Amino acid sequence: MYAVVSSGGKQYRVEPGTTLTMERIGAEAGAPFTFDRVLLIGDGDQVTVGTPVVSGATVSATVLGEELGPKLVIFKFKQKVKYRRRTGHRQHLVRVRIDTINADGTSKKRATATKAEADDVAEPATATKPAKAAAKPRASRAKAATASASEAKAEDKPKTARKPRAKSTKADAAETAKE
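The structure corresponding to this sequence follows.
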């Protein structure tokens, strides 16, 4: 089971038992922390996508401690005027261990759809398109007919693999020069 959570303007894919280094969240080391903004939950073939969050879903974690990120160097330079400024900083981060993922959302059944259900939903929408095309003016119907004909031609053409170009060698160049 995995989840995608949002914190500090960034999104993280988390699983139970993994550690995560992220922006500082203001909790002390050893304290429990709960992510409320769960954007997605995946469990095998079932994937629940939130709109924008999965309602009722939470990810609980334990704060392991704070640390500094890598040093970032900012170098400003203007040519011909001897202007050079070298500054930098290290971002304050926090290390978190993911404990559990709770998927108690009520929208799980509604948001989760299998491929067969998605195909069933898509078929009625395509069936109504020809009826709308018949009600359009004559010029619009002609454009729709040429578009469907070009799509059919594109599907009929076999897709061929592109052959790699032969690499020329010095011997080949010498033979072409003799001719």
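The two ends are 68 Å apart (CA to CA).
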